[in-house]
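C-alpha cells as discussed.
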C-alpha cells in the first residue's frame, strides 16, 4: 500500500499566526489526510544576545548594500533582492508582519523580509543558541512538526545549528514527549 505525505509549509511568522494557519488548514482537511506542518526560518546566532543582534544588523546592512549597488549599476535585482510586492500570499503576509513590527514573540525579526520584499525565507530568529532553540520549541508547541532552518552564511551556520541548536531542540522535544506520555 502506498502512503502519501501531506505537509503544509509556512515561512517564519509570529506564533499566533502559525497557530491560526494550522487551525484553518485543519478545518478544511479531511481527517485521513492529517498533514504535518513545517516552518522555515533563518536563525542568526551569537555567543551573546548582543553579538547575535550585531550580526543580524550586519546582515541587514549587507543586503541593503547589495540592493543599492545593483540599483546604482543598473543591474537586474535578483529575486532574493527584489522589493516589488510579490504575488505569493505567504510573502504578502510576511510584508504585513514586517510593517506591523520589527520583532514578534521572543525574537522573530522581520526587517530583512521588508527590505527584500519578503521573497522567500527571510524572517530570522536572533539570539544565542539557547534562545533560538527555545523559540524553535515554541513553534513545536504551536503544532509545527518540521522546522526548516537555513542560514545567511550556509556552511558556518549549518555547522553552528547542528552543533549548538538542534541538540537543544531535540532534547527539549523529547523531554516534553516523555512527559506527555507519563501524563497520558
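Sequence:
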Amino acid at each position: 500500500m502506498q502512503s502519501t505525505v501531506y505537509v503544509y509549509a509556512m515561512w517564519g511568522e509570529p506564533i499566533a499566526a502559525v497557530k491560526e494557519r494550522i487551525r484553518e488548514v485543519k478545518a478544511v482537511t479531511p481527517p485521513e489526510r492529517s498533514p504535518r506542518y513545517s516552518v522555515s526560518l533563518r536563525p542568526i546566532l551569537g555567543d551573546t544576545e548582543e553579538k547575535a543582534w550585531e550580526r543580524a544588523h550586519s546582515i541587514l546592512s549587507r543586503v541593503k548594500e547589495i540592493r543599492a549597488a545593483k540599483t546604482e549599476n543598473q543591474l537586474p535585482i535578483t529575486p532574493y533582492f527584489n522589493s516589488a510586492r510579490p504575488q505569493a500570499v505567504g510573502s504578502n503576509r510576511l510584508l504585513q508582519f514586517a510593517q506591523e513590527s520589527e520583532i514578534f514573540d521572543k525574537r522573530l525579526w522581520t526587517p530583512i523580509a521588508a527590505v527584500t520584499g519578503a521573497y522567500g525565507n527571510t524572517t530570522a530568529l536572533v539570539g544565542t543558541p539557547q534562545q533560538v532553540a527555545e523559540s524553535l520549541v515554541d513553534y513545536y508547541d504551536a503544532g509545527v512538526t518540521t522546522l526548516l532552518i537555513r542560514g545567511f552564511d550556509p556552511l558556518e551556520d549549518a555547522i553552528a545549528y547542528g552543533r549548538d541548536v538542534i541538540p537543544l531542540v531535540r532534547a527539549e522535544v523529547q523531554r516534553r514527549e516523555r512527559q506527555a506520555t507519563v501524563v497520558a
